[in-house]
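Retry 2 of 3 after timeout on previous attempt. Resubmitting structure tokens to design endpoint.
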């Protein structure tokens, strides 16, 4: 695929699995690895919640993103819905901006939510040709997915 020219992406993800998926998928879409910056200070098994991390960083990064709105940049948030629906998870993210008087996300802004139902493993399995159901939790088989192929 043709390389994308000029666009830079800042990605906020809740764990290593989502980081890998984001990197490989964007690479498949033609982005060079130098155009993608994933914030790598997520908890990833350490103390703290990946979901809370994404919510907190969303507030910070939305402000930074809007300050740089003339640049060719996009903000990508990768977070799993787990027990919530995708709509509920999106509402939780939207609520984070409201709590700090940051304006809500505008549909025209280059702010993208990647919210797999349950876990990113659902997307990984589907993209590698496996049959999946959104209501099933596939987290336990994440190590068996070829993430390069999924991307």
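Retry 2 succeeded. Sequence:
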């Amino acid at each position: 695929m043709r390389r994308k020219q000029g666009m830079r992406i800042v990605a906020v993800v809740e764990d290593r699995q989502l980081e890998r998926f984001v990197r490989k998928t964007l690479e498949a879409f033609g982005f060079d690895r130098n155009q993608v910056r994933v914030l790598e200070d997520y908890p990833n098994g350490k103390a703290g919640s990946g979901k809370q991390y994404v919510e907190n960083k969303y507030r910070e990064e939305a402000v930074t993103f809007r300050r740089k709105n003339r640049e060719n940049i996009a903000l990508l948030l990768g977070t799993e819905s787990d027990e919530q629906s995708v709509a509920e998870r999106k509402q939780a993210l939207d609520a984070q901006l409201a709590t700090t008087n940051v304006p809500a996300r505008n549909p025209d802004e280059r702010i993208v939510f990647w919210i797999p139902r349950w876990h990113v493993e659902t997307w990984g399995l589907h993209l590698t040709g496996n049959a999946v159901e959104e209501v099933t939790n596939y987290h336990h088989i994440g190590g068996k997915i070829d993430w390069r192929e999924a991307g």
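Attempt log closed. The mean pLDDT is 85.
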